[in-house]
Write a structure and sequence with these properties.
With about 450 residues, this protein is mainly beta. The chain has a domain of about 70 residues. It contains five helices and 34 strands. The strands form eight sheets. A five-stranded antiparallel beta sheet has the order 4-6-7-9-8. A five-stranded mixed beta sheet has the order 5-10-11-12-13, with no helix packed on it. Helix 1 packs antiparallel against helix 3.
């Protein structure tokens, strides 16, 4: 059979029948409605630079034959700490196979051929060739798949994310991480934790002892058993400080130079150690929010704080260099954001702030340090509040962003780029700021941005 296209390639088969197929620069999905032998013959002779031959042959033979099953497939679970901007990568587990839907910029990640464009990224679909898949997890561009023959990983390995004892920044072909059965994966900001039947395994950075191995070391390149982790239910690791939930309460390890582990001291914590919570809060902590030097322990609307309090950023009424034992705020807390030595909480219909006021962002008058929760004076009803370096910015009901405090280059909308290349603008009253830049800066760290439902409060 002879197939030809406007690109001028052909494939010779046993039968002397010919047809012409016009294939555009980007192969549309409808090509896969043709018979599989037809697709295979066309793609077999297609130019790799134009059509990604190898990936598409794999797709037509494996992926699209299972199209009906894919609709019933299980989505791959996303894992990882909350303050990271995620990629749109996703996947499906179907019939023991893992189908990865990746967005690779400049065709760098996973090193596969392009076949579909989406904005500045390249949408890439791959059938991952590994033993039958039982479960899978994805964090940014790090993929983990539990199979019948152990845990496999591929994707971004910068800094040893995948635990493969490899110096390669990217792992293209899936490699086995461990023979053990893994039932859960948690990827923190600097460390990775794998749950097995008997215990948790940890690897990657351990410079602060955040893996709980009993020692600190720059890097742990392969999964290592964590002592005393049998009863751990889940993890939360940020800024090198790790917290582990158990049936008996909260445990901590890692960075504790300002008492942010909440264990009653600023000593090094390299093993899982109980957090010194009050008895009526133990076992009831819903989540832990960690800044560079402080921690916020949330139990429903109760909030306990520990860590650095030099500027009063813990809201306890008086500045104190360290708070090493979790201490409860005297106000109910519904939402909280923090950064740059300042904290803002939403308590019912009120927005309150405390911490560093040297740039007059909390109040245009008053002391440089504001250690008690203080209502923010707002320019009107707001739908969002965000923290940027040196300032507080809010989004008005009209959609405009306004800010108060000290804000750096290109933030204030009324200033041109040429005038503020190295400038810092200071204001103790609300002024319009660039919404695009504010949202871009805040989106990098969700704990800097708080959205408010104007219909649910008087704000």
């Amino acid at each position: 059979m002879m197939f030809s296209t406007t690109k001028g390639f052909s494939a010779d088969c046993d039968r002397h029948v010919s047809c012409t197929v016009d294939i555009p620069g980007v192969i549309p999905n409808r090509i896969f409605t043709l018979l599989l032998p037809t697709i295979a013959a066309i793609l077999h002779r297609a130019e790799p630079a134009d059509y990604g031959t190898h990936s598409l042959v794999c797709l037509c033979r494996k992926f699209f034959m299972a199209e009906a099953e894919l609709k019933r497939g299980e989505p791959v679970r996303k894992t990882g700490y909350e303050s990271v901007s995620r990629t749109p990568d996703s996947g499906i587990i179907c019939g023991g196979r893992l189908f990865a839907f990746c967005y690779a910029r400049d065709n760098h990640h996973l090193e596969v051929d392009k076949y579909q464009h989406s904005g500045s990224a390249t949408a890439v679909t791959r059938l991952i060739r590994i033993p039958p898949v039982l479960d899978a997890w994805i964090f940014c561009q790090c993929w983990f798949a539990q199979t019948t023959h152990g845990l496999y990983a591929f994707g971004d390995n910068d800094g040893g994310w995948l635990g493969l004892d490899s110096a390669e920044d990217e792992i293209i072909a899936p490699e086995r991480v461990t023979h053990r059965d893994v039932t859960d994966v948690y990827v923190g900001e600097t460390a990775v934790y794998l749950k097995t039947v008997d215990e948790w395994l940890g690897f990657r950075m351990n410079v602060f002892g955040q893996l709980g191995l009993g020692y600190d070391d720059d890097d742990v390149i392969s999964p290592t058993p964590i002592p005393g982790s049998h009863g751990v239910i889940r993890w939360r690791e940020t800024m090198g400080t790790a917290f582990a939930w158990t049936a008996d309460g909260l445990m901590a390890c890692g960075a504790n130079d300002h008492g942010q582990c909440g264990v009653g001291s600023t000593d090094e914590v390299t093993t899982l150690t109980p957090v010194a919570l009050p008895d009526d809060v133990k076992g009831r902590v819903d989540r832990v929010l960690v800044s560079t030097h402080s921690s916020f322990f949330m139990s429903s609307r109760r909030c306990l704080v520990a860590g650095l309090n030099r500027h009063g950023e813990l809201g306890l009424g008086a500045p104190d260099h360290y708070v090493t034992t979790p201490t409860e705020l005297l106000i109910p807390v519904d939402d909280i954001i923090w950064g740059w030595a300042i904290t803002i909480v939403r308590s019912g219909a009120n927005l309150l702030a405390f911490g560093n006021n040297s740039t007059r962002r909390i109040s245009p008058i008053g002391p440089d340090r504001w250690p008690s929760p203080t209502p923010l004076s707002l320019p009107g009803p707001v739908t969002a509040v965000a923290l940027v370096s040196g300032a507080i910015v809010v989004r008005l009901a009209s959609g405009e962003w306004v800010g108060r405090g000290r804000i750096g280059r290109r933030i204030f909308a009324r200033l041109t780029d040429e005038r503020v290349d190295n400038a810092v603008h200071f204001t103790n009253r609300w002024e319009e700021v660039s919404d695009a830049i504010v949202e871009s800066m805040s989106s990098r760290s969700p704990h800097h941005l708080l959205f408010i439902d104007p219909t649910a409060s008087d704000l």
